[in-house]
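Review this today:
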Amino acid sequence: GAVVTALRLKSLAKRLPAVMSRFVPFFAVAAVNCINIPFMRQRAELRKPFMKRFPVLNASVQVGLVGLCLVFATPLCCALFPQMSYMAVSSLEPDLQERIRQSSPYASTIFFNKGFRTT
């Protein structure tokens, strides 16, 4: 499912703006999850006896657990990866290399903040 979706979207993305091609992997993974999750969970879902006794709570418990995971997973992942990073000047685009060499001729590495810029 993911391969078929990725190949089809890749062929469609050639006619769309270049930024759309960046979303092809996201849509491919989303498509395969739409296929995978129902097949894998159709027989044995989260806390089967409890959910059979209280079917009204089924959606709210699952949404609550997913929300709880997201509340803790997002800050944890942000904390795992460093906010400041560096890159060699030689690996940048030629116009950026030229601008950096004009302002700092001896610089071989640049440092940058991967977070949001506030002005």
In short: The mean pLDDT is 79. The longest helix spans residues 58-80. Helices lie at 2-13, 24-41, 48-53, 58-80, 94-103.
